[in-house]
Specification:
Number of helices: 13
Radius of gyration: 18 Å
Order of helices and strands: EEEHHEHEHEHHEHEHEHHHEHH
Largest sheet: 8 strands, parallel
CATH class: Alpha Beta
Number of domains: 1
InterPro entries: AKR, AKR2_Oxidoreductase, NAD(P)_OxRdtase_dom_sf, NADP_OxRdtase_dom
GO molecular function: oxidoreductase activity
Domain NADP-dependent oxidoreductase: 15-315
Strand order of the largest sheet: 3-4-5-6-7-8-9-10
Shape: globular
Oligomer: single chain
CATH topology: TIM Barrel
CATH superfamily: NADP-dependent oxidoreductase domain
Pfam family, one: Aldo_ket_red
Strand content: 5-15%
């Protein structure tokens, strides 16, 4: 496992880490024993960073992380998020009283005294423009409750706004082969300001594994069913904003990326790892096998300059126009 510095913080984290949305809920049936086995395998392989949120399974993924990392609190870094347990459009959700309550609840579930990276969970642009929540986070940081803080954003514009705050140390961004816009300006600016990048939705909700057909179906409690067209939250969080059938079609057109890399999953993650501004990529998982496959991405060959250019041209010519939602 290789490690990268999270912006200009003192956190040195594994370049491949894991998100825990899937093991918390909203991805169909889950198995806690399998989830814990996956977490332990990741740590054995050198993963020292996990991303979660208070609303993943109503705190279930935080509890799983507490169990898996017991006794390793000083070795394993945890990033969690807040605000979506309330009304994200209500300014009161970001008041000191509310944020402190969200934080204390996460600390209890995680069985920790401090959060390594505390993130605002995809807040509206108006909240970021107001900026009051950052003063709250500054106070909690001074108190030692959080080590550093960042923002999970939906759009490049939101990312730019966050970069105006010198104490924002990380941006979590939807980024994958189908979703390349952040590469243009956001990533270089973040690097210049010493802000780390966490790449989420790296496999476009499974489209970039190459395993789906247009006939594939998903359980009623899986966001790939109930949010397919953005009915529940930002459509970009599901299939990177692509209509499902179009996404399946596009994934078939780039099957060549798996040459020399075993499969599309490893290739898609490798492509992200090859972007120097990215601190870590955070694929999700539900099974031990998926953890193993994701870990293998760190060992497969990097993309050549010609291959990177080919994928950029593919994105611009065949993908970009089909992406829906704020971007």
């Amino acid at each position: 496992m290789k490690y990268r510095q999270l912006g200009n913080t003192d956190l040195i984290i594994s370049e491949l880490s894991f998100g825990t949305w899937a093991i918390g809920g909203s991805w169909g049936r889950t198995d806690d024993a399998e989830a814990l086995a996956g977490l332990h395998r990741a740590m054995e392989a050198g993963v020292n960073f996990f991303d979660t949120a208070d609303v993943y399974g109503d705190g279930h993924s935080e509890r799983l992380l507490a169990e898996a990392t017991k006794g390793k609190e000083d070795e394993i870094y945890i990033a969690t998020k807040f605000c979506r347990a309330g009304d994200i459009f209500d300014p009161e959700t970001y008041s000191e009283e509310r944020v402190r309550a969200y934080l204390e609840n996460s600390l209890k579930r995680l069985r920790r005294d401090r959060i390594d990276l505390y993130q605002i969970h995809c807040p509206p642009l108006a909240i970021l423009k107001d900026g009051s929540v950052f003063a709250v986070l500054d106070k909690l940081q001074r108190e030692g409750k959080i080590r550093c803080y960042g923002v999970s954003v939906e759009t490049v514009e939101e990312g730019w706004l966050c970069l105006e705050n010198p104490n924002v140390k990380a941006l979590q961004v939807i980024f994958n082969i189908f979703r390349q816009k952040p590469l243009e300006q956001l990533f270089p600016q973040a690097k210049e300001k010493g802000v780390g990048i966490l790449a989420r939705v790296p496999l476009a909700s499974g489209l970039l594994t190459g395993k789906f057909t247009t006939a594939s179906s998903f359980a009623a409690d899986d966001h790939r069913h109930f949010n397919r067209d953005g009915q529940a939250f930002n459509v970009g969080e599901t299939f990177a904003g692509l209509p499902f059938a179009k996404g399946v079609e596009l994934s078939r057109k780039i099957r060549w990326v798996e040459e020399r890399r075993g499969n599309m999953t490893r290739a898609a993650l490798r492509w992200i790892l090859d972007q120097e501004e990215v601190t870590t990529v955070i694929p999700g998982f539900k099974t031990l096998k998926q953890v193993e496959d994701n870990l293998a991405a760190t060992e497969v060959p990097s993309f050549t300059a010609e291959e990177l250019q080919q994928l950029q041209q593919f994105y611009e010519a065949e993908v970009f126009e089909y992406i829906r939602g704020p971007y």
